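Quick one, tokens below. Sequence please?
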């Protein structure tokens, strides 16, 4: 068995799930897909006034060839076959548990699924939930607008306590309208350029585009409002 090191864990995820993404805003790692592969988002991109028509993941570093190549490899690692799914999920679990064993600081134990892109299948959401359940020491945040996938999954499943599924509003300046977040305590909402007393403002634009010590996005009791960026 290979010695547990950060290098080994990086090689593990690079090989099996296309590696991690390093969104500088986040307290730790994240994992992304290309926004062109979003089921709903790739359609909304062509609708004026939607959040996806101004998608931040179509700009800057996300366009670099090495980033696109990594996202393509991540997409190819997703499967509906039981064997491939087990390998995918077990890789993440080993990665997270390995970093915990190596002393991952408390303030970094916050992981974001999909700083770009969105869930692809019911099976993918099921596996994300399974991964979270295996690593209760880490808090997971999953933003999504794929309500049809969520509803199929939710028929027989609930998110574990350390997984916040946050529904994203589709229209700039408008809140989420479907009301699914009331169905479970670990569901929440976010909106863009929407001012309302029920939404807490993301502080990142005022602190160097960084989460800093804020962890609102991982807290399902908080509805979060973001500025368009």
């Amino acid at each position: 068995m290979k010695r547990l090191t950060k290098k080994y864990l990086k090689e593990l995820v690079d090989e099996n799930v296309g590696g991690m993404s390093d969104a500088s805003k986040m307290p730790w790692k994240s994992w992304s897909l290309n926004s062109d592969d979003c089921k709903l988002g790739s359609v909304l991109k062509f609708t004026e006034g939607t959040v996806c028509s101004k998608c931040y993941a179509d700009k800057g570093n996300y366009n670099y060839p090495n980033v696109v190549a990594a996202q393509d490899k991540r997409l190819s690692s997703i499967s509906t076959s039981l064997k491939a799914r087990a390998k995918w999920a077990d890789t993440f679990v080993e990665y997270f548990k390995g970093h915990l064993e190596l002393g991952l600081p408390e303030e970094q134990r916050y992981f974001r699924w999909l700083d770009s892109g969105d869930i692809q299948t019911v099976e993918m959401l099921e596996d994300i939930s399974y991964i979270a359940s295996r690593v209760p020491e880490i808090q997971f945040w999953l933003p999504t607008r794929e309500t049809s996938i969520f509803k199929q999954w939710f028929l027989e499943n609930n998110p574990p306590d350390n997984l916040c599924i946050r529904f994203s509003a589709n229209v700039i300046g408008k809140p989420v309208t479907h009301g699914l977040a009331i169905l479970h305590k670990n569901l929440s909402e976010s909106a863009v350029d929407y001012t309302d007393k029920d939404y807490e403002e993301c502080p990142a634009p005022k602190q160097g585009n960084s989460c800093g010590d804020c962890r609102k996005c991982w807290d399902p009791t908080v509805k979060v409002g973001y500025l368009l960026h």
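The chain is about 30% helix and 15% strand. The mean pLDDT is 95.
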